[in-house]
Amino acid sequence: MARAFHWLIPHPLLTLILAVVWTLLQNEVSAGMVVFGIILGIVIPWATSIWWPDTPKGFRLGKMISYSVLVIWDILVANVQVAWIVLTVPNAKLKPAWIVVPLELRKPEAITVLAGTITLTPGTVSADLSDQGHSLLVHVLHTDDPDAARDEIKTRYERRLKEIFS
Amino acid sequence: MTAEIIGAYATALCLFIGAGFALVGVIGLLKFNDPMTRLHAPTKVGTVGIGMLLLASIVHSVLLGETSIHESLIMAFLFVTAPISANFIAKVSIHRKACETPPSPPLDDTWSTLIAPETDQATDGGTQR
User: Which residue in A135, A163, A158, A165 sits closest to A71, CA to CA?
Assistant: First the structure.
């Protein structure tokens, strides 16, 4: 039974997301559309299975949800800060800086989520990864203390992501 | 009746905040004078700006009695794709040396964008500035 389930639905989370996205696209909840969404959620992962090398192991969904809430809150707060910088700080006084974040994360998925988080949080853009993937290059719009900005990324986001992708 | 009035004000407030953030994004795009700092304004302020406009759309649809929440999909796809386009723009400006050269990484040899055939780098450094 478990093997049949695994054969039919190799990526349960992907199946669920595809079904939910399909239902949302229809903009109404009806039994037929939910069933069609589930059919799509089974057929699409099967058809694209050669591009899914291996399922990431040890992903903690509960912590990911609390992490998402934290990131959305940070985006809201930092948006106001960046808007304030854009409107008040003249170009001559702006202090942009490159900061290098040494990475403890090794999984590609975790690094992708961290880079996406850094970019979505206003004031920082993740620009590049070093050739072996040991550090992340981040551009900061306006900072007096680049080291503090780096430490905040490490303690606030990377520590939590290490717990999520453990 | 009161619910309609509150809903109308909520829609207007969301539209106002969203439009305000979009305006700040445009001001930032025009004001900054370096590709990397310029990248910050629209990609960031855009997320909340568009988010508030979509929230206004949802509130308005609820108010009209035709609840529609597929706006949340726009938000989700925007959150997934915005970092990628920002990353591409950043990589292009590093590659063309249109910005200050980043410090080299402490552990590895170089940044992955800077690994390019020498002929490629020479033309980029010489002609593009």
Answer: A158
Q: How many residues does chain A have?
A: 166
Euclidean distance between CA atoms A164 and B58, whole angstroms? 32
Minimum distance, in Å, between the CA of residue A63 and any CA atom of chain B? 19
Instruction: Please list the residues that pair with A125 across neighbouring strands.
Output: A139
In a domain, B113, yes or no: no
Question: Does A132 reach chain B within 8 Å, measured CB to CB?
Answer: yes
CATH of the domain at A102: 3.30.70
Number of domains in chain A: 2
Does residue A125 belong to the interface with chain B, where contact is any CB pair within 8 Å?
yes
ipTM above 0.85, yes or no: no
Instruction: Please list the pLDDT of chain A residue by residue as tens digits (166 residues).
Output: 677 777 777 777 788 888 888 888 887 778 888 888 888 888 888 888 777 766 666 677 788 888 889 988 888 888 888 888 888 888 778 888 888 888 887 888 888 888 888 888 878 888 888 877 788 888 888 888 878 888 888 888 888 888 887 7
In chain B, what is the straight-line distance between the N-terminal and C-terminal CA atoms, in Å?
61
Kindly state the helix (H) or strand (E) to which residue B119 belongs, with its residue range: helix B118-127
In a domain, A56, yes or no: no
Q: Which residues of B touch A126 (CB under 8 A)?
A: 83, 87, 90
pTM of the model: 0.79
Rounded to 5 degrees, what are φ and ψ at A124? -135, 140
* Owning domain of residue A104: 61-164
Domain range for B14: 3-102
Provide the number of structural domains found in chain B: 1
Q: What gap in Å lies between CA B121 and CA A156, rounded to an integer?
A: 37
